[in-house]
Design a protein that fits this description.
The chain is α/β, with parallel strands linked by helices and 271 residues long. 48% of the residues lie in helices and 21% in strands. Helix 3 runs parallel beside helix 5. Bound molecules: ligand C2E and calcium ion (3 copies). The site of one calcium ion has 5 residues, from strand 6. This is EAL domain-containing protein. Keywords: Phosphoprotein.
Length: 271
């Protein structure tokens, strides 16, 4: 081994050790995050494209980490999935979001809907059904007011068991949305085999909607497809009035994005 190579190797080992120590520390912290009340949910309004009024909101979890500060979900949901902590974390988000939706109903907002993200691991676990039933029972939220967002990738991982899980969820009366639609390189045949209600058009197709003819064509095709399958459409990542107008004219049902509202704690949100 050359001297320089040896140094590189030692450097590599040191950074790897630092990385895995950081990971272990994060895992230990995440284990206590729920009980210590460090998680919070922000809500991003979902807007009716036709009336330009909010009809509900998506729950997006954040972690107020004691040392690292406020962490976005991409920094800890994958870790929660790998360690199994997602079960507890996901149950907390579901209960909390259902309770919040019930509060909006009680405040006079008729037919409000709350959308909750379900990770791939959560979706593969049969206990999800009990967790959802429990959240509905404890909040007394009508099941039709709850939308579960499941990514196209997790639906495609095992279409047969996905079908079973979705049928059970539909029997409970909740709604199902396919999240990140169009990013999964999947065949479209699953759309007719799975009982879903809503397609969420991924924000990667919305970003350059007004500049890029191909993106505009893809978005129109998705909306047409959804229409013929009698599925509703939500476009995510809407950042400008121009994008909102193109989507509305194309027949998209619901809009979501910074143009209307950033994700916001419920206390500061007017729905
Ligand atoms: P997602 O479900 O695709 O959520 C949309 C993401 O886009 C959110 O990021 C949201 O804040 C962001 N966003 C909203 N409007 C705009 C916009 O106009 N422009 C742009 N560029 N972005 C916008 P966030 O909150 O960081 O969440 C990231 C991902 O983390 C989510 O992607 C979802 O997959 C996951 N996630 C969030 N909350 C939960 C949760 O409670 N449970 C699980 N399992 N996953 C969650
Ligand atoms: Ca989502
Ligand atoms: Ca999405
Ligand atoms: Ca996403």
């Amino acid at each position: 081994v050359k001297r320089a190579g040896g140094n590189d190797l030692r450097f590599y080992e040191r950074t790897m050790n630092a990385a895995s120590a950081e990971r272990l520390a994060m895992e230990a912290d995440l284990r206590h995050a729920v009980e210590r009340g460090e998680l919070l949910i922000e809500y991003q309004p979902v807007i009716s494209a036709r009336h330009l009024r909010p009809v509900g909101a998506e729950a997006l979890v954040r972690w107020l980490h004691p040392r690292l500060g406020r962490l976005p979900p991409d920094r800890f949901i994958p870790l929660a999935d790998e360690t199994g902590l997602i079960a507890e974390l996901g149950a907390w988000v579901l209960c909390e979001a259902a309770r919040q939706a019930r509060a909006w109903l009680d405040a006079g907002h008729e037919r409000v809907r709350v959308s909750v993200n379900v990770s791939a691991v959560q979706f593969s676990q049969p206990r999800l059904l009990e967790v959802v039933a429990d959240a509905l029972r404890r909040s007394a939220l009508p099941p039709a007011c709850l939308v579960l967002e499941i990514t196209e990738t997790s639906l495609m991982a095992d279409v047969e068991s996905a079908a079973g899980m979705l049928r059970a969820l539909k029997n409970m009366g909740v709604q199902v949305a396919v999240d990140d639609f169009g990013t999964g390189y999947s065949s479209l045949s699953y759309l007719k085999r799975l009982p879903i209600d809503i397609i969420k058009i991924d924000k990667s197709f919305v970003r350059e909607l007004c500049e890029n003819d191909d993106d505009a064509a893809i978005v129109r095709a998705i909306i047409a497809l959804a229409g013929s399958l009698r599925l509703a459409t939500i476009a995510e990542g809407v950042e400008s009035a121009g994008q909102a107008e193109v989507l509305r004219l194309a027949g998209c049902d619901f809009l979501q994005g910074f143009h209307f509202s950033r994700p916001t704690p419920a206390a500061q949100l007017v729905l």
